[in-house]
From TrEMBL, chain A:
Keyword Transmembrane helix recorded: yes
GO cellular component assignments: EMC complex
Protein name, UniProt field: ER membrane protein complex subunit 3
A GO biological process held by the record: protein folding in endoplasmic reticulum
Annotated gene: LOC107653429
Entry's family note: Belongs to the EMC3 family.
Domain of life: Eukaryota
UniProtKB/TrEMBL annotation, chain B:
UniProt name for this protein: ER membrane protein complex subunit 2
Subunit and interaction comment: Component of the ER membrane protein complex (EMC).
Main location per the UniProt record: endoplasmic reticulum
Entry's family note: Belongs to the EMC2 family.
Phylogenetic placement of the source organism: Eukaryota, Metazoa, Chordata, Craniata, Vertebrata
Species assigned in the record: Sinocyclocheilus anshuiensis
Length: 251, 299
């Protein structure tokens, strides 16, 4: 393995400036996103539905603390074949087409503007300004496949793939400074690019699953199979097997 | 008039922290809040930074409680100046109108907030409390029912509805509301105990049995709940005294009542009061039990 001694001015004028540039651009992105962000209008129907689903789930989990009659009454309210809530209520689902739905379009555009554009611009600028020399060495060995990707601008065949150029140092910073952003800007900050990319991959992130009907159906099934096993069946016996603990009663 | 900081020898940071504690734990000691908060605002407003706004809100609500309209008005002015279009500030203005008994104006204000933002639950609840303040309890009950149809998860609203029903003596519906609360908070002994009391008040053999069970559950969750212990004793002895029960049920309930008695006298022993001896107390409990049964319910 070739041991290369790099000029220390690389450290001073390349490595540190790239870190600072990435960090401050990230902070700037966070504030710009906050400025052009508009409040998501919450739909009354959605809030109501999510609460109903929560109530049904709690009924399943904690129904055993209620008397049998009350549990049966509530289960009947939800699951009755003719008048039950989950059977009767069908919500109209409008599939949100990203191309025609204006609010989603503007959100997407804003997201692109604040995240992708700066990354491309700065990545390109760094590639142009800091090219032609090795910047740093990653501490683990890499295969030769990574050479063209990480050593842009350096045309040495015999050079180890661990020695990387400034562009790859920039990308390393973009992802690595995420925890710094959390420390300084608090959780859920807009400078966190990897999370945004994750969001774009998993689809629209809404308060409710986009299809309430499916949620209702699965909740109905779950509630059907739940049986009522009263937790208070032998509560007196359990209580009276030992004396009550009055510690701290009259403090 | 000496200020709080001189009286109690506290600095402004401690006053601010006290206010925060009261805010987070939902205390309603309005006079104290007004005293501490007023001084904090008048003397140390600049040092508080951004905290000052939430302190303004807290002091304003406390001032409304103590009928200090001057203080409430000045707080409201400051908040309006800083947050001109805020729904939260509008709601506070509505609360001030309620305190002045100008219910129509308050209602109009709340309606305008709700037009803008239909999901604003706090404002809807304020409208219901206007109805309660005007004494229109049946309308308040109706509105609260509609509200709960849309927001089934609001526990504060369920509790309020149960109280309204108890005032109307509609114990069956109050029991339903308390069941909702018990379901969402299964480890809260106070809800179990309140539910048991409602069941006891409804009367009838099954309700008494349920009451006994839930008193026992409340005791299991918190051994020191004396009210539940007394409730357990009373429901057990009531069932035992009823002529319709089988011998086995009677025997069981007598056993439960005896156990409850022994625990009560143990509690008094722990307390160490002089006026009660072991032998006399259970007998006295029997007498007081009969008189208690004649009196209005435990609620």
């Amino acid at each position: 393995m070739a041991h290369l001694l790099l000029d220390s001015s690389i450290r001073l004028w390349v490595v540190l400036p790239i870190v600072f540039i990435t960090f401050f651009v990230g902070v700037l992105r966070h504030y710009v996103t906050q400025l052009i962000h508009n409040e998501k209008k919450v739909d009354l129907q959605q809030v109501s539905d999510s609460q109903v689903l929560l109530r049904s789930r709690i009924l399943r989990e904690n129904g055993k603390y209620l008397p049998k009659q009350s549990f049966a009454m509530r289960k009947h309210y939800f699951n009755n074949p003719e008048t039950g809530f989950f059977k009767k209520v069908k919500r109209k689902v409008i599939p949100k087409n990203p191309m025609t739905d204006t609010s989603m379009l503007t959100d997407m555009m804003k997201g692109n503007l604040t995240n992708v554009l700066p990354m491309i611009l700065i990545g390109g600028w760094i590639n142009w300004a800091f090219s032609g020399f090795v910047t740093t060495k990653v501490p683990f060995p890499l295969t030769l496949r990574f050479k063209p990707m990480l050593q842009r601008g350096i045309e040495l065949i015999s050079l180890d793939a661990s020695w990387v150029s400034s562009a790859s140092w920039y990308f390393l910073n973009v992802f690595g400074l995420r925890s710094m952003y959390t420390l300084i800007l608090g959780q859920d900050n807009a400078a966190d690019q990897s999370r945004i990319m994750q969001d774009q991959m998993t689809g629209a992130a809404m308060a409710m699953p986009p299809d309430p009907n499916k949620a209702f159906k699965s909740e109905w099934e779950a509630l059907e199979i739940v049986e009522h096993k009263w937790a208070l069946e032998n509560v007196e016996e359990e209580l009276m097997c030992q004396d009550l603990n009055f510690r701290g009663l009259f403090s | 008039m000496s200020s709080i900081s001189e009286l109690y020898d506290v600095c402004w940071e401690e006053m601010r922290d006290k206010l925060r504690k009261w805010r987070e734990e939902n205390y309603r000691n309005s006079e104290q809040i007004v005293d501490v908060g007023e001084e904090l605002i008048n003397e140390h407003a600049s040092k508080l930074g951004d905290d000052v706004w939430i302190i303004y809100e807290q002091v304003m609500i406390a001032a409304l409680d103590c009928s200090r309209d001057d203080l409430a008005w000045s707080c409201l002015q400051e908040l309006k100046r800083q947050f001109p279009d805020s729904h939260r500030v509008k709601r506070l203005a509505g609360m001030r109108l309620e305190a002045l008994e100008r219910y129509e104006d308050a209602n109009k204000l709340y309606d305008s907030i709700l037009q803008d933002d239909p999901t604003n639950t706090v404002t809807r609840k304020r409208k219901i409390s206007i109805l309660q303040a005007q004494g229109k309890s049946s309308e308040a009950i109706r509105e609260l029912n509609e509200y709960l149809e849309q927001f089934v998860g609001d526990q504060e609203a369920w509790h309020e509805l149960s109280e309204l029903y108890i005032n109307e003596h509609d114990y069956a519906k109050a029991a339903f509301c308390l069941e909702e609360l018990m379901m969402t908070n299964p480890h809260n002994h106070l809800y179990c105990e309140q539910y048991a009391e409602v069941k006891y008040t409804q009367g009838g053999l099954e309700n008494l049995e349920l009451a006994r069970k839930y008193f026992a559950q409340a005791l299991k969750l918190n051994n020191r709940n004396m009210r539940a212990l007394f409730g357990l004793y009373m429901s057990a002895s009531h069932i035992a005294a009823s002529p319709k029960v089988s011998a086995k049920v009677k025997k069981d309930n007598v056993k439960y009542a005896a156990w409850a008695t022994s625990q009560i006298s143990r509690a008094y022993q722990v307390r160490g009061t002089q006026e009660c001896t072991l032998g006399v107390f259970p007998v006295r409990l029997e007498d007081s039990c009969h008189t208690l049964l004649m009196e209005p319910p435990l609620l």
